[in-house]
Each structure stands twice: as C-alpha cells, then as structure tokens.
C-alpha cells in the first residue's frame, strides 16, 4: 500500500551573504562617485552600492539587490544588517518584492551622512560589514529555455544540439594548434545571451576565427594562430616545438604557413588522408584524419579559442555556471594545482579556465553578463603580489575597462607600491622595450600617482587651517 503523499505548501531557498564596504567617506564626497558590486551569488543575484545624490541635499549611500536577465522572475525577501568590523550592530533593513528579470530594488538612502558622522566607530573604521539574508521563491524553474529544449530533445530521442564545434586543445610556441576536440552546442543558447549572433549558422563565428565546415570538407589536424592570451587555456605542445626545423622566427613561420595553407582540407577523389604539412613531421596528431561522423547540424572550426575555454563557455550558456582558475601571476604552480584538483573533484564538469581568455571571448561576442562576471573575478584575485603584473600585462593594455579597475587598485595602494623593487623593475622593462604594450599604461599611472601625491601633501595643511 502506497503511503499518502505530503503536499508541499511552500518552497523557498535561503542564502546568507557577508560582504564589506570600505572607504565609506567617498560615498558622501562630491568629488567621488563610487559604484561597487559584489560577485554574483545564487540565481544570478548581486548587491551593488553607490553614492545617491538628491539635489543639494547631503549625499547618501545607496544599496540595491540586482537580479539577472538570465534568470526568471522571483519573489524575494531580503534583510541586510550593518555591523562594525568588530561585530557591533548598527541597524537592520529588510524588504520583500517580486522581482522581474534584470530588475534592481533596494534603498537609495541605506546610510545617510548624518549617521556616518555621528557614529564614532563607523567613522573611525570607515567601513561596514553587511550581513544579508536572501530568501527567494522562483515563480517558475530556474532553467533557461535553451537548456529545457536540450533536455526535452534528449528525452524524446532528437538531436539535442544544432552546432558542432571543432576546437584545438594545444598550441606550441610558434602558434601552431593541434589536438582538436569536438564540442556541441545550440544556436538558441548563444543567441539567447546575444542576439547579434542570429546568423551564426550562415556565417560561423568570425569573431573567434570560426569558419563553417562545408559538406565536402573536414578540419585540418593542425592550424595556426597568431594571438595568445596572457593566461591561456591552451595546453603547451612541447613535442611539436622540438620537431620544428625551420630557421625562421616563429611569427614569420606562422604567418607564412597560415597564408600558404587553407583552413580546411577538401576530401580528394583518390584518398581521404590529410597530407603532412611543410616543416612538420608525419607523426603529428591525427585526431581528425578520419572523417567526422555524420551530423545533422552545422560544424564550425574555431581557431580563436582554446578547447577548454570554449567548453566552459558552452556550459555557462546552458547553466550560468563557470569556474575560473587562479591567475598565472599568483604562481603557475598553484594555478596548475588548483586546476588539477578541480578536475579530480569534478570529472563531469568543465575544467577551471582563464578569466582573461573568457573576458576576451565575451567581449568579442558581446556576452555582457559573462564579461561582467569575469571582471568581478579578476578584481577579486588582485593583491599586492599581482597588482603590477596585471596592470602592465598585454591583456590589460587592450581593455580600457580592465585597465581602469586595476589602475584604481594600484593608486589606492600607491604608498606601498611607489618605492617597491617590483615597480622599478617594470619601469626598466618598459624603458628597454621588453613591455612595448605597457608604455601608455605607465604614463597614465604616473600622472594619476602625481595627482594623488599632491593631494596627500596638501591634506596636512588643510587640516591645520581647519583647526
């Protein structure tokens, strides 16, 4: 006899978040306009703080809870308690609201200037620790439409994807790609996040050097690319490096070979074997020498992304989840160890990937929410040990948004950085041409630093005049 079921009256999830707001005085200064956000948590949620201006009234500190456009509407109750760094209770505010996707609700006057000025411990610490409890009930399942479609197609025996990607896993020093992998995705998952990619089935992905594979074509077993990310997810192909016998420089060899050889090999009438390329031994990986299995969708060969990176992005498109590896500037050994540990613990998930590589791809494909997620992670990984390596990296020189974030962090810690050996070494490397991309970044840093030094020098005299 089956036991009677117990009906669930209400289903609700609860998250507890703790974060710190530093430099409170800047929220009340008319010369500053801070706007800061937490990392994403739960179903695409994050808190944001800003300086609220109400005509000629004193500035206020505003605090809002933001929902993501990638998740459905949901009823949320959230309470935020403000405490000192030592745990002293200041106040608690709470709110209930039924959020629409991508909506933000909160308090424009979460903390006013009078409270800040008249609370000694808060003013002395110039910081708040916020303890937030967020309870939410999704109005329908937190699963994207594209994910539901893939699941349903799998259940009824249909082909769950409509795009097959061939992406290379390894790269040697000359820019030669090898060890291609086959990955699968859907057009809907991509266009749901970015409508500008509606024509991907007709044009491929030119933003990532991605070309459509014709019916009579198959991918090359190796290819060339001239780009390289600072923290690349490509595996080093040292075997290929040792086999290189060409006396030209790697860039010259890569450029010449890529212009001489087509991306795709046509299948000939006499044989389907791919002939060895010039300057390469016949023992190179031949994972794609055999014909690809028949497939009802389109096939795109991508040269502008590593297989590990693209796999993580395809997974993010369906789940909203992505795991980033530590920065190389934090230590290559610790980075590799973290990646290997994650692979062992989560064998059925994508490996942790470079936030820089993901940022570059998200920027190229206009995946704005993913781009913001990577920037949040990068900012969180910055430290005194990595500030200068990151600020003067080739990656940073290419993205104004990244440079601005890292520049602010360096200026904030300028007193500790300006006399350091690390800064002197960077200046020498730039002057001797070892970091040709970083000259303008150094110029911007010195200009901003000189302004800060002048402001710091005038503060004591201002204080004495007020006394």
Describe this entry's structure for a reader:
There is one protein chain. With 467 residues, the chain is of the alpha+beta class. Helices cover 36% and strands 23% of the residues. It has 17 helices and 16 strands. It has helices at residues 113-118, 120-125, 145-155, 187-193, 200-203, 238-243, 250-260, 307-319, 332-345, 355-365, 368-381, 387-391, 394-398, 400-412, 414-417, 421-431, 439-466, and strands at residues 13-22, 35-37, 46-52, 60-66, 74-83, 89-99, 104-112, 127-138, 163-171, 176-185, 210-212, 217-219, 223-224, 235-236, 264-266, 298-302. Strands 9, 10, 11, 13, 14 and 16 form a 6-stranded mixed sheet that branches. A 4-stranded antiparallel sheet has the order 1-8-5-6. α10 runs antiparallel to α11 and α14 (400-412) crosses α17 (439-466). The longest helix is centred in the C-terminal third of the chain and has 28 residues, at 439-466. It is globular, with a radius of gyration of 27 Å. The termini are far apart. Residues 241-291 and 462-467 have low confidence and may be disordered.
- Total DSSP E strands: 16
- Give the biggest beta sheet: 6 strands, mixed
Radius of gyration: 27 Å
What level of helicity do the residues show? 25-40%
Strand content: 15-25%
Provide mean pLDDT, rounded. Answer: 80
The span between the termini is: 86 Å
SS-derived structural category:
alpha+beta
Shape: globular
Counted by DSSP, the helix tally is: 17
Q: List low-confidence stretches.
A: 241-291, 462-467
């Amino acid at each position: 006899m089956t036991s009677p079921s117990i009906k669930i009256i209400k289903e609700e999830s609860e998250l507890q978040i703790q974060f710190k707001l530093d430099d409170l005085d800047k929220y009340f200064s008319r010369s500053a306009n801070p706007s800061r956000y937490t990392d994403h948590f739960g179903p695409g949620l994050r808190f944001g703080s800003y300086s609220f201006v109400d005509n000629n009234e004193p500035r206020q500190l505003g605090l809002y809870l933001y929902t993501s456009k990638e998740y459905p509407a949901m009823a949320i109750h959230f309470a935020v308690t403000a405490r000192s760094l030592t745990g002293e209770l200041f106040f608690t505010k709470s709110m209930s609201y039924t959020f629409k996707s991508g909506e933000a609700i909160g308090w424009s006057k979460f903390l006013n200037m009078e409270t800040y000025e008249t609370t000694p411990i808060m003013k002395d610490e110039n910081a708040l620790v916020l303890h937030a409890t967020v309870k939410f009930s999704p109005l329908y399942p937190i699963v994207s439409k594209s994910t539901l479609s893939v699941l349903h197609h799998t259940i009824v025996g249909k082909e769950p994807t409509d795009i097959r990607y061939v992406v290379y896993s390894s790269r040697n020093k000359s820019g030669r790609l090898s060890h291609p992998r086959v990955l699968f995705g859907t057009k809907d998952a991509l266009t749901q996040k970015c409508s500008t990619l509606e024509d991907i089935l007709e044009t491929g992905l030119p933003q990532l050097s991605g070309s459509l594979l014709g019916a009579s074509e198959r991918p090359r077993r190796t290819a060339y690319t001239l780009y390289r990310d600072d923290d690349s997810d490509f595996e080093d192909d040292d075997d290929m490096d040792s086999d290189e016998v060409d006396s030209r420089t790697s860039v010259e060899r890569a450029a010449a070979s890529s212009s001489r050889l087509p991306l795709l090999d046509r299948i000939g009438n006499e044989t389907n074997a791919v002939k060895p390329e010039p300057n390469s031994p016949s023992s190179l990986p031949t994972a794609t020498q055999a014909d690809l299995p028949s497939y009802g969708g389109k096939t795109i060969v991508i040269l502008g992304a590593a297989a590990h990176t693209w796999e993580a992005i395809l997974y993010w498109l369906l789940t909203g989840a992505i795991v980033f590896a530590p920065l190389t500037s934090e230590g290559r050994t610790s980075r590799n160890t973290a990646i290997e540990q994650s692979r062992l613990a989560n064998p059925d998930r994508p490996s942790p990937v470079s936030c820089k590589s993901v940022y570059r791809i998200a920027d190229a494909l206009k995946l704005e929410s993913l781009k913001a997620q990577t920037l949040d992670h990068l900012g969180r990984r910055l430290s005194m040990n990595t500030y200068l390596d990151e600020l003067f990296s080739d990656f940073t020189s290419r993205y104004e948004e990244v440079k601005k974030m890292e520049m602010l962090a360096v200026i904030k810690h300028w007193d500790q950085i300006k006399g350091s050996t690390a800064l002197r070494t960077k200046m020498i490397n730039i002057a001797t041409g070892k970091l040709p991309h970083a000259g303008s970044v150094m110029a911007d840093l010195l200009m901003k630093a000189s302004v800060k030094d002048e402001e710091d020098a005038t503060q004591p005299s201002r204080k004495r005049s007020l006394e």
